[in-house]
């Protein structure tokens, strides 16, 4: 067990993100693009056939013949090799990597939905797109291919982006237990006849004379989804959580909380949300669903359980983990030997507490947003300061105001604000009632982050145009929003103006990439922005907090805001502090910083198996990503 989770290790556990490589769209060809399904499938299949030929003959030097000359990407999650997540940029790098590492993938085929589409939101660079399946030496996989006409090679169709991920292992497929292949009974054949399903489930869950192959720490969306996938493959999993009941991490959040993203983005595998749920489910619906998900899928969850110690035994390639289960009142310690550990404790580390003087002088309440249980009628007439202008800060300010508090929001730097409807409209083209969430996820994951970032600039500009009245009213009220510097340039006012399109576009951040790099810095407006714009919620912007007096917050320009309660919506440090505390220094020092961007330009630290010394994996994501 780790000895420390203190500020002295925070710097190395929160290394700054690598920069995102700035890329532009590939050159657009003026040659025609087919629209008819059969022809599109044929073109994609022919190209994949050439690709497969090169792989099967191991003539890797010929790979550039099927890859777009100017720019091409192969994003792979354990398809090419058994262990690596990698994003290869450019024909030369792809060829070099395959040459050095070989390629487990034997052949790729076009799957469902071949169609014509475009790489950029404006529809300038046309592409043909298809889901793909592949067969590898160890299993089968899925993915997506986007092919474009290569302007530098006679307008031939070439691969622009290829995304591959391993789905099943040969001989071990979730399809063996799903749908038509479902078992006749849940109990195994050799289970005593006098015992029923409930007896079976309870015995299975206790792991008496049995070992979990995987121990998952954390029973939120990520932990439960990982366990569900593994159980379908017949891998025995034990999930532990410190909470009292399944779903408590949502149940115990503030009273009025609803999801900010529509339900299609947050769907879990094998078991959909009820069809009559609202698009934006409440925290208690989500909590109840997560609790029942465990029962419905027969997962092995131990609540009120934590890790006492964990040691990797290299000779036998398994962990020795001591758990303490407090669910029956008195603590019970047990020892287990899983081969893999998965940390799924959420994205947030310790609350980030600003360090200002006079906290002990302040006579009111001061606390971090993670402790905000919801505003109550007792807030009526109270002077509340919310420090921080991201999603949490806005939600808290809104709820306190709804209960009659006099709220002031303190904002240090600018915030990316997007209207709820604007965001929903944009996401609805991808995540919606008709599209299978897994397919939407594949399309989303298929793009390298650098290309997503380029697309996001243009989407950001569209958002900005759509939300301009709201954003201008916020600025007038003293709230600082992210704006393009060329906001008043001709191209902003006249979208078809040809001048400076790229520099205009690249000056706006991508909302998706903001999430992937910072997991914060933005607000999707669900009601707070108009209250700020109208002055009902007051703003204090751009001044540093100097200190607290007994009854107020004092700023470095001498201004002062009175307060009965101060809520610090100042975010969290990176989650690696939990890794260090729960699994110890050896594990924490051996894994990447979690979240942000790695040296290949992709999401850092998550989902990768750290297998050089031991098998440890960090599983995390925002629900909808
Ligand atoms: C107020 C609020 C609103 C949000 N709204 C949205 C939204 O609308 N859409 C969205 O996509 N995301 C939203 N998020 C982010 C959301 O929390 C995550 O998307 C989602 O819950 C992540 O799931 P997870 O499984 O990674 O982590 P969590 O849901 O946080 O689950 C982690 C679990 O690990 C357990 N745990 C932690 N440490 C230990 C330990 N040492 N031992 C045992 N168990 C441990 C915790 O008890 C918890 O149950 C919101 C977050 C907050 C705080």
Describe this structure in words.
The chain is built from 18 helices and 28 strands. With 625 residues, the protein is of the alpha/beta class. The protein has three domains: 27-118 and 125-169, Nuclear Transport Factor 2, Chain: A (Roll); 183-344 and 575-618, FAD/NAD(P)-binding domain (3-Layer(bba) Sandwich), CATH 3.50.50; 351-572, FAD/NAD(P)-binding domain, CATH 3.50.50. The strands form seven sheets. Strands 1, 2, 3, 4, 5, 6 and 7 form a seven-stranded mixed sheet that branches. The chain has a six-stranded mixed sheet with strand order 10-9-8-14-28-27, covered by helices on one side. A hairpin with a 4-residue loop joins strand 11 (305-313) and strand 12. Mean pLDDT is 88; it is low at 1-7, 486-506 and 621-625. Flavin-adenine dinucleotide binds next to helix 5 and helix 17.
Concise synopsis of the structure shown:
This protein has 18 helices and 28 strands. The chain is α/β, with parallel strands linked by helices and 625 residues long. Strands 1, 2, 3, 4, 5, 6 and 7 form a 7-stranded mixed beta sheet that branches. A 6-stranded mixed beta sheet has the order 10-9-8-14-28-27, with helices on one face.
